[in-house]
Amino acid sequence: MNIQTLLSDKIQQAMIAAGAEQNVEPAVRQSGKPQFGDYQANGIMGAAKKLGLNPREFAQKVLDQVELAGVVEKLEIAGPGFINIFLDKQWLAENASEALTAVNLGIKTEKAQTVVLDYSSPNVAKEMHVGHLRSTIIGDAVTRALEFMGHKAIRANHVGDWGTQFGMLIAYLEKMENEHASEMELSDLEAFYRAAKAHYDSDEAFAEKARGYVVKLQGGDEYCLTMWKKLVDMTMSQNQLNYNRLNVTLTEKDVMGESLYNPMLPGIVADLKAKGLAVEDDGALVVYLDEFKNKDGDPMGVIVQKKDGGFLYTTTDIAAAKYRYETLHADRALVFSDTRQSQHMQQAWLITRKAGYVPESFSLEHQNFGMMLGKDGKPFKTRSGDTVKLADLLDEAVERATQLIAQKSTALSDEEKAAVIEAVAIGSVKYADLSKNRTTDYVFDWDNMLSFEGNTAPYMQYAYTRIRSIFSKTAVDFTALSAAKMQLTDDKERALALKLLQFEEAVQTVVKDGTPHVLCAYLYELAGVFSSFYEHCPILNAENDVKLSRLKLAKLAEKTLKQGLDLLGIKTVEKM
Question: pTM to 2 decimals?
Answer without folding.
Answer: 0.94
